[in-house]
């Protein structure tokens, strides 16, 4: 069995009223002013409550609005054999 390590670094310009929020599990997410929370760990995920279920969006416009904020993205893959 091998271990895959993926490092994603994203730099974005976001509205001034977005804030960082730490969940009860210690994970940081973004709190948006409309009562939504945003997690960008693998794909943009949204929730009304950061302790509840996270879902992707069905709206291409909403997804494109978020992705348009990305100024740069760097992804590194590393495979390690045990």
Can you describe what's shown?
With 82 residues, this protein is mainly beta. The termini are close together. It has one helix at 60-68, and strands at 2-12, 19-22, 28-31, 37-39, 45-47, 70-81. Helix content is 11%, strand content 45%. The model has no long low-confidence stretch (mean pLDDT 88). A four-stranded antiparallel sheet has the order 2-3-4-5, with no helix packed on it. The protein is globular. A hairpin with a 5-residue loop joins strand 3 and strand 4 (37-39). It contains one helix and six strands.
What is the strand and helix layout of this fold?
Elements: E1 2-12, E2 19-22, E3 28-31, E4 37-39, E5 45-47, H1 60-68, E6 70-81
Antiparallel strand pairs: 1-6, 2-3, 3-4, 4-5
